[in-house]
Amino acid sequence: MKTKLIIFDIDGTLTNSQIEHHAAYLAAFDSLGYKTLNEDFSSYQHYTDSGIFAEAYFKEFGKKANKQAIKDFEQLHLEQFKDVLEISKLTEVAGARQFLLDLADSEWAIGFATGSFLPSAIVKLDECNIPYKHDVLATASEFYSRKEIVLSAINKAQDYYQTKFDEVVAFGDGLWDFKAAQELGLELIGIGYGKNAQILIDKGVTLFEDFLEKEAIIEKISGLRKIS
Fold this sequence. Notes:
Elements: E1 4-8, E2 15-16, H1 18-32, H2 49-61, H3 67-84, E3 91-92, H4 96-103, E4 108-113, H5 118-127, E5 137-138, H6 146-161, E6 167-172, H7 175-183, E7 187-191, H8 195-202, E8 206-208, H9 214-222
Parallel strand pairs: 1-4, 1-6, 4-5, 6-7, 7-8
Antiparallel strand pairs: 2-3
Helix pairs in contact: 1-3, 6-7
C-alpha cells in the first residue's frame, strides 16, 4: 500500500533539459517579436512557463494575457522545442529512470510537478524514457505559481491512489523548488550540481548530484518526519 508520496520536479531533476527548454522559450518570444522582454526569468514573480509569459505579455501589451494567448504560446513553445531537439538529444539525470522503477514496489507513491507547460513536459519524460502517469502530472499549463502546481500534484496523487499520504517529500533542483516546498511545509531533497546546487546547500537542503546515490537517498527520505 502506498502511504508516502514523492513529488518530482522534471527539468534538472529527472531530465537534463534546461538548456533546450530555455532556448525554445526564447525562440518562441523572438518569433513573436517581443521588444520589452526581460530575459532574466529568475526575476519574474513566478518562475514557470505560464507565469513568465503572463508577466512578459502584460509588460509588452499593457493588458492581461487571456487563456487563448497562453495556449497559443504553449503550442509555439512546443514547436520550437521540437526543433531544438532535432539537433540536441535529451538525457535523463543519471539513475532517474531506475530510481522511479525501484519505487514501484515500495510504500512511496510518485507525483510530478513542473514549471514547464504540459506538452513539452510530456516530450521530456518520453524522450528520456522516464516512467510516469498522466493522472499525477501537474504543470504550468494549469497554474502560474510553483506552490499551486505542487499542491495540484499532491491532490492528483491522493485522488489517483485513493489515500491521504502521511508523508510527502519534494525533489527539485532550484531555489524555486525550495520556496514552493517551504510554503507548503514540505522537505525538499535537492538534485544536481553547480550554482543552483550550492544555493540549495546554503539553504540547508540535503543535496545529491544524481540518483546513482540511491541507497543514500532512500536512507534520507526514510528518516524524514511525518507531516502533521
